[in-house]
Amino acid sequence: MNEWMELYHKAVETDFAEYQAIFDFCKTRVSAEEGIPAIIGLDDLVDTSSPVYEMSDMDKKMHERMAIEALLFNYVKVRAGDVRRKYPTIAPSMSALAEKLFCVDEETGDFLTYRQTVARASEHE
Amino acid sequence: MSDFLESLTQDERTLDAFRQLENGAFVRVLNFHNTAEANRDRIYDGLARLAEHFCPVSVADIDQWFLTRKWQHDRPGLIVSVYEGWRCHYDVMLDCLDRAGLRGWFFIPAFLRDVPPSEQTDFAASHRLRRSAVQLYADGRYAMNAAEIREVAKRHEICCHTGTHFSPEDGATAEELEREVVSAKAYLEETVGRSVDVFCWCSGEEYGQTVPAHPYLKRAGYRYVLSNTRIERIGQ
Hints:
The structure holds 2 protein chains of 2 kinds. By secondary structure, chain A is mostly helical. Helices cover 54% and strands 10% of the residues of chain A. Chain A contains 6 helices and 3 strands; from the N terminus they run H-H-E-H-H-E-E-H-H. A two-stranded antiparallel ribbon of chain A has the order 2-3. Chain A is globular, with a radius of gyration of 16 Å. Chain B is of the alpha/beta class. Chain B is 42% helix and 14% strand. In chain B, strands 1, 2, 3, 4 and 5 form a 5-stranded parallel β-sheet that branches. In chain B, helix 3 runs parallel beside helix 5 and helix 8 runs parallel beside helix 9. At the A-B interface, strand 1, helix 3 and helix 4 of A face helix 1, helix 2, strand 1, helix 3 and strand 8 of B. Strand 1 of chain A pairs antiparallel with strand 1 of chain B, so a sheet runs across the interface.
């Protein structure tokens, strides 16, 4: 809960500027010609007995942070009135989330953005 | 704070996503549409870097994940989704994926390859297929042919993207659903000689958004529907 409130208040202090900046960047992507990252959920409609899945070690380090950040991105979309039933606000939010938090640097433990992940090592050192 | 809390409940899919991230029920995807020759090096470089952090994902991996509720590999998985069945996917993306060691999920409108080359550009425009403005083919053939699809299928997943890049958003007749869901699957399976288990609508609609299509998806025998927000297991 502490991390949750800390991230929320930090976002409020800047009026969610960091989140809006990532959405603005996402709009500049050319989805017809480049790879667009996103994160999608797993939903088992056949066996609903357990919604909990055992993750990779990397995901164990970042999934809780990702869950919080997804809601913060979603809030920015809802606040802007960009709400459509067919394409829910959480969908672009999960793509923005992928831009911000894509993996963990195994050496430093830092979270890497998608752009940092695909950049050559020399570009993000 | 009240505005924020209200934003969580405007659409149930918001809290679904939160729950899935909390529960480890998520996977990264990288969505491609066109993969032009001019972008070959950039695409390969990006995939090669990603392969340092992620492992390829097959439909069999997804089967195991749902069955055991445990991801079976040390690194998390990355699904590389390649949409529309374009010829540049065979010419460029196949090589990039193979060299990088990642697995593509090729979402192909089953009947696109039967459109005569001279009509494929117009067909693309009228069926919301985003054809590359960069990659041009002098003979007018932009869709993969059957032999190219079979070659892709040797090492990657072939998934059904309806028959003609169809969306049921404005309603669909029984005849359209039969063609776009059931016949499309059979045609792709006949092409590649194996089961096609994953379906995706033109606009990435979720299973729950397409209730009239449910009997057709079930009867066709799809096991997964991939959408903008999730991969849903609908059959065993």
